[in-house]
Design goal:
This protein is α+β, with helices and mostly antiparallel strands. It contains 8 helices and 20 strands. The protein has helices at 19-30, 62-80, 99-107, 115-121, 144-157, 200-206, 273-283, 333-345, and strands at 8-15, 35-39, 54-55, 85-86, 89-93, 111-114, 132-136, 140-141, 161-164, 170-173, 178-182, 185-194, 214-215, 217-223, 233-236, 241-245, 251-257, 295-299, 303-304, 319-321. The radius of gyration is 21 Å and the shape is elongated. The two termini are 36 Å apart. It binds flavin-adenine dinucleotide. Flavin-adenine dinucleotide binds next to helix 1 and strand 2. The site of flavin-adenine dinucleotide (FAD) has 40 residues, from helix 1 and strand 2.
């Protein structure tokens, strides 16, 4: 196909209609850029629509805390203020209190509770080895599907074009423009942003682009039928897993694994040692015996940028990869995408 056969030309092509792609498209449209979002699925089921969508304001990194607060305001301004369901979060740690964490908690105006205070506050929770915890009383959930639809609608109101069911198969770069090819046609633009989540490393390889991110697979297990919606959500960085109830009352937990792509058949199952350890750990917080019945396993779409520097080469001009990792991204995607765009386009 030659450039004269280009089906459409835009300022920006955003590949991927997850939370990162939709936030990116909306920020660009607010800057009056002509944007087309190209998504491989017709019925979108991705990490964003399946997300626990937990919003936790406390983070040892003050930069992340600020981005979470900014993103919370962004979601609320989309008309989603009512959709936020509070559920306090406890960020637990052992006797060797980490001074940096304590300082951060105080600076954020959050209370650090001792084990005795935690017991008094939440008597039904078995606090196990937790000696202190930062109480993040304003944490909670959103409904990921409602958020996704609200973002899409906001994009459409500003004229963003969507192409669903169009998988990006090839990428071309010329001095004047960038092009992506799908089964349905060729799209040209000044710039392309890949917001392709879990798929990113394999897609970049297929398109002949340098691998600039790695995946971190989080296998996510849902324990249905336990009616644990009233549990606080607990983040256990020391033990390397995350656990939280979701808006639907299921409990969800995952063990991150620094892997490249993991085929669905190779996801850890309930016999996996890590999974058993995580379940035993989780049991300490649950007032009822937990079992593996009703476990559903899926995988998250985190990515992180720890590709060895010597393996990194530069992407073509005006080509960017927004695959955010180092933890879950739903809670800070709006702020992170805006910061990235400001760094590219100027604020
Ligand atoms: C079960 C679960 C629970 C989670 N809980 C939380 C939480 O509590 N709090 C939190 O902050 N985060 C949470 N996360 C993480 C967060 O939801 C994800 O990090 C975030 O949604 C990733 O968004 P994304 O847009 O980068 O990726 P995705 O949502 O995966 O979107 C990527 C899109 O790119 C499309 N795509 C890929 N390749 C192509 C191609 N070749 N052509 C066209 N389109 C393509 C895909 O189809 C997909 O729609 C959770 C994730 C999961 C799975």
């Amino acid at each position: 196909m030659s450039a004269s056969e280009v089906s459409s030309h835009y300022d920006w092509l955003v590949v991927g209609a997850g939370i990162v792609g939709l936030c990116t498209a909306l920020h660009l449209a607010r800057r009056k850029r002509r944007v087309c979002v190209i998504e491989q699925m017709s019925e979108v089921t991705n990490a964003s629509t399946l997300s626990g969508a937990g919003i936790r304001f406390f983070d040892p990194d003050p930069g992340i805390s600020a981005q979470v607060a900014q993103s919370h305001d962004f979601y609320s301004a989309l008309g989603l203020a009512e959709d936020f369901r509070p559920c306090p979060s406890y960020y637990g740690f052992g006797a060797a209190a980490n001074e940096r964490l304590l300082d951060r908690a105080h600076a954020s105006g959050m209370r650090v509770l001792s084990r005795a205070q935690l017991r008094a506050r939440r008597p039904s929770v078995e606090w196990g080895s937790v000696d202190y915890a930062v109480e993040d009383e304003h944490a909670g959930f959103r409904d990921p599907l409602i958020t996704w639809h609200a973002l899409r609608a906001a994009c459409e109101r500003l004229g963003v074009t969507f192409r669903f069911g169009h998988q990006v198969l090839a990428f071309e770069d010329s001095t004047r423009a960038r092009y992506v090819l799908t089964q349905a046609g060729r799209y040209g633009a000044h710039g392309v942003i890949f917001a392709t989540g879990y798929w990113t490393p394999s897609l970049l390889e297929r398109l002949g682009l340098p691998a600039v991110v790695r995946n971190r697979t989080i296998t996510v297990h849902r324990l249905a039928g336990h009616n644990l919606a009233h549990l606080p959500f607990v983040v256990e960085h020391d033990s390397g897993f995350h656990a939280r109830p979701t808006a639907s009352g299921e409990i969800l937990f995952g063990v991150p694994q620094p892997d490249w792509d993991v085929a669905p058949d190779n996801l850890p199952d309930r016999a996996d040692a890590h999974l058993n350890k995580a379940l035993a750990h989780l049991q300490r917080y649950a007032p009822v015996p937990l079992s593996f019945s009703g476990v559903r396993t899926t995988r998250s779409a985190d990515a992180f940028d720890s590709v060895a520097p010597e393996a990194q080469t530069v992407l073509p001009e005006h080509t960017h990869v927004f695959a955010f990792g180092e933890g879950a991204a739903f809670k800070y995607a709006p702020a992170r995408t805006l910061a990235y765009l400001n760094s590219i386009l100027g604020s």
